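Can you give me the bound-state structure? Components:
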Amino acid sequence: MKFSTPQTLEQIASLLGIKYVGAADFPVTGMNEIHVVEPGDIVFVDHPKYYDKALNSKATIVLINKKVECPEGKALLISEEPFNDFNKLTKHFRPFVSASASISPSARIGKSTIIQPQVFIGNHVEIGENCLIHPNVTIYDHCVIGNNVQIHAGTVLGSDAFYYKNRPEGFDKLLSGGRVVIEDNVEIGALCTLDKGVTGDTTVKEGSKLDNQVHVGHDTVIGKKCLIASQTGIAGCVVIEDEVTLWGQVGVTSAATIGKKAVVLAQSGVSKSLAGGKTYFGSPADEARVKMKELANLRRIPELLKQKNQQ
Amino acid sequence: MKFSTPQTLEQIASLLGIKYVGAADFPVTGMNEIHVVEPGDIVFVDHPKYYDKALNSKATIVLINKKVECPEGKALLISEEPFNDFNKLTKHFRPFVSASASISPSARIGKSTIIQPQVFIGNHVEIGENCLIHPNVTIYDHCVIGNNVQIHAGTVLGSDAFYYKNRPEGFDKLLSGGRVVIEDNVEIGALCTLDKGVTGDTTVKEGSKLDNQVHVGHDTVIGKKCLIASQTGIAGCVVIEDEVTLWGQVGVTSAATIGKKAVVLAQSGVSKSLAGGKTYFGSPADEARVKMKELANLRRIPELLKQKNQQ
Amino acid sequence: MKFSTPQTLEQIASLLGIKYVGAADFPVTGMNEIHVVEPGDIVFVDHPKYYDKALNSKATIVLINKKVECPEGKALLISEEPFNDFNKLTKHFRPFVSASASISPSARIGKSTIIQPQVFIGNHVEIGENCLIHPNVTIYDHCVIGNNVQIHAGTVLGSDAFYYKNRPEGFDKLLSGGRVVIEDNVEIGALCTLDKGVTGDTTVKEGSKLDNQVHVGHDTVIGKKCLIASQTGIAGCVVIEDEVTLWGQVGVTSAATIGKKAVVLAQSGVSKSLAGGKTYFGSPADEARVKMKELANLRRIPELLKQKNQQ
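Here's the bound-state model for the whole set.
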């Protein structure tokens, strides 16, 4: 197997707590059995009878139980227990994938990523390292997930855009050729839906967090370090800039932009683009202080009516 | 196997690009192995040794590699490669069902329909032709789905009605004996819920499209060519007439009727029946132009208060 | 197997419609094969050749086809068909678990409970008797479910709390160490999410009913006999007292308390604690009669403006 991220000789030796022969930054890109090794691979050998075969194989790193002479252009990892250390590397670098998940052979899954049971992963999906994909998640073809991403149970990434042309004979569907791209350190709650892009990508940028039952439409971009609370719905082609907070059950109309560090209070309906750095409320949403004033004014109508009746 | 739709001799010959002997409209209703064939079935034979057996079987259509005399009341399909052509028909008419889907033996699935992994299909469910059921969908017993229907991941069809009688000792549940019926050319987004009818059916009529996370209550009828956007919730016993559009996060109270071609704007709450052909907004929803005027009036209270204070 | 609830000799005899020898309340805690039986277990024997072995085994209840002398400290169940009656008990007390569900070996599932296909049940989960868990449900580690509970398809119990500390380098997640606890006679609709508690439990008390697509945040407590309609979202640390009704698409802010028998109308936004016994509406929610008056007043602004213009 190839490591999802290339390693150095020193990183591998440090991981195993053993010594090495070669440059500290000697590249290590994977590990394999001796009959299929390639340059960049680690091969292991623990019997003098096979030393030559291992040292002369295509592998450029040899995990060996004796400090022998290092061949030109190669490196050695000196281990008392090459077998055990090889197993340690396998455990460290392989992803854990439940036997009852359905995963396309063309999907790529990074090391230390855990795929729980009954997850569906479509063709050409890429998932980075240290991710945790909870049960019953569905990931459609071509979605891309970064490192340290957690996706809670039942969430759907990559469903089709809700985008139809009204023709006399029925709705004509615009095909969705884009992807869903989830950057590093994002967490997505349970039972969310993120539609794929029609032509571009639906993107959630680095470090943003989505609560449960959030919907994100096609081609929408959610910036870095945003917080999106439960049951919020964001239509297609929306741009949410960095560090925006949307509280629960907010709705955002298509093609709106919400500026950096804006806060939208619960149940608000964003019907147009909003400037950053302010707090909004209402449906349609307005600045919260304006909206609160309006609500206070509404409560003063009785005194106006009373005065009118006295005149 | 029986075809989900009866074919004619000409249709089958045309599908295979081969010639036939018999009436163009000679009925072809399935295909099978020689020991179990019935009238209407295709049987194949490619060796003279077995010609008689095939021609005298109960099958009324013989796929054969020689133009022999056609028995009375039967038809021939003349193929250079009966084996390959028989396989072609199997591929064409069988549905594709993932091995990791859970499907009741009593469910019927039409040709060219694809069932993705981890789909659950209950007893006596009927699904038509050319449908695509995405992963992790759950279809309860007795639901009926037409042709050319697409259902996105995680959606649930046929959960129980939310209908209880409040008795001193606890809620008493009304049993749901109805079905969910999805007509042709409907598309349902990801993570939607459609409850089954209590006594009748919950129905989505021909050509309507539902976005993600839509909820439809028991016995509700959605007309033809409707558009229902994300996170809209429709209670039980609602009638939505044809060509209605409900935008995102709309709520509709139970037993309301929404007239033909009505448009309800996002986040509106439909608390009573609405006439067709108009646009509505607000919670409770009113005609959008009335509601917008109200919002404008609300902003004029300060000038009224100012005048009052001057008097 | 051990029964999920200890039985008495009389209960077992009555279940089988047979006679017994021993005290009516003689304890029966399980049943097993003769080589592994323990005190409290039923063993069966139907051939005189094995009578002694069964009567002298560690089992304290012997299901036997002859009224023999009862050993000291033991009890007999006298059956004409011990084999058939033993099978009846197995069927009665075993849970039915679909082969395509993924269930942790450490989960405990009570008798007569049905687990449908593609359900995921995590470590140390406890599920009581007579429950029905529909397909594609996900239950995270440590959740506890009582008796007579029904959970509809795709629902997620025990996802993480949405609770982050905003640090310059990114959001820091508060770990969720609590549980979700569902008491007896609760029904939860399809595609709901209930987050686990951070330190305590997220609890739904006896007899409450949740519709589809409801979200319940961490550490929230829903009282007895509550009705929560579809698409309602309840934030974390909320207390909903007994017999409260929340209609569709209601939102409740974190840490609010809603008093006993309160009713909150559809689409309302509960922004602060509400006293019991009243009906509320609006976003932010207020008493419904106050809110309806406000809406009526809003419609009288035009006459105030008209009068102003006449002055």
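A couple of observations. The mean pLDDT of chain B is 93. Residues 155-293 of chain B form a domain with the UDP N-Acetylglucosamine Acyltransferase; domain 1 fold (CATH 2.160.10.10).
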